[in-house]
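In this supplementary section we document a worked example of the pipeline. Step one takes a protein sequence of length 458 as its only input; no multiple sequence alignment statistics are reported here. Step two produces a three-dimensional model, which step three serialises into structure tokens for compact storage. The input and output of this example are shown verbatim.
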Amino acid sequence: MQDFTKGNITRQILVFAVPMLIGNLFQQLYSIIDAVVVGRFISGSALASVGVAININFFLFSMTMGFTTGASVVISQLFGAKQHEKLTRTVSTSIVFLGALSLVLTALGLIFSPFVLRLLGVPSEIFANALLYLRILMAGMAFPVFYNMYIAYLRALGDSRNPLYILIFCTVLNAGLNLLLVLVFGMGIRGVAVATITAQGLSVLLCVLYTRRSVPLLNVTKIEFDPQMLRTVLKYGAPAAIQMSMVSLAMLTITRLISTFGASAMAGITAANRIDQFAMMPIHVTSMALATFVAQNMGAGQESRALKGLRTAMLMMISLTVCISVLILLFGSNVMSLFVSQSDPSAPDILRFGLSYLNVLAMFYVTFTFLFSFNGFFRGAGDAVIAMVFPVVSLIIRVTSAYMMVYIGGMGPEALAWSMPIGWSATSLASWLYFRKRLWAGKVAVTPRKEQEEPQCE
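The serialised model returned by step three reads:
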């Protein structure tokens, strides 16, 4: 665990963010390995199937991710305020709530998967594989839910190193199972899905064993459900859940638009999105590290230190973004080729669609950096609603502009890429204005520690 309320700011953010970055790079590598195995050793159409199924799965899963994101902010603030008993009750309440929510989402996913695939206009040649992959993921929904819960709560306490080890284990296991089930046992797309949920399930077990042995604050020996703590967590988690649900809904809307361009465009953009998620992970991670840093300092009543953390993190993110953009523009075609077998007749089209999409994004990553710098600060400061609003507005702008460019402007799949920097730029400007007006102030979940210690005036 790490106390961010004192010490060198740059060093603290780096020391906390680097293990988390490595861990999240492994987590994205997890998805990339799935895509590479499917694209190279099964088929390009199978890759398109995986892309569709993952977007639908994320739509349901995002609600639980939003809850854990909001709860982790509360946990960071409680830790900063030294309110340990409330912190443990928050964890226990989370376990009960997430367990029930996982069961509901699993049932909904298994029942309505075919309907959703038809609603998205999924081409008939990839429908069966998409349905098979999606249903297997939905059957194991509880594993990624609790896996992400433990990872988020460990990070909320300032522990980014041990989540890294767990992520590495999960990624290596998933890669090994993928190769075993696909190449040795010939299970095809079914094997990729089974490998994913098996690796996640074993990682949950590791998290439970580690917290029982080494993290008393997260070791729940008696399950309690505290309605008041649930309301507090939902206050911060519901906006994050809505944000992530809106993100995934927007992705589903975009998926329907992509499907109109055929399976090759779907496969190419699926591959490009895997690279994009991998490339942008340093920005996401630094934003999460900033949220934890800000939350602890706001809980301790140290606003000026939280503001210094924002400036430090923003400079880090800009530097990272420039390097990432240059690397993608130089080597994007080489990386894209990893996802496609050259013997696949559709390989040239897949590579053309994917590379065109990726290059546009790389040129405008810096605008994304400003949006997520402020987003991390707002989330840590307790302004959960606005931390939801700006990313959602960005997506609404993206979806609207994409459809307009395709159906009014007559553009092809490249419109999907150009729509993203339009949304990033608009909401980055809005975030800066909101920050300057200090509309985020006074929204922490706990009474700051310094304020608690001061004598009350008569």
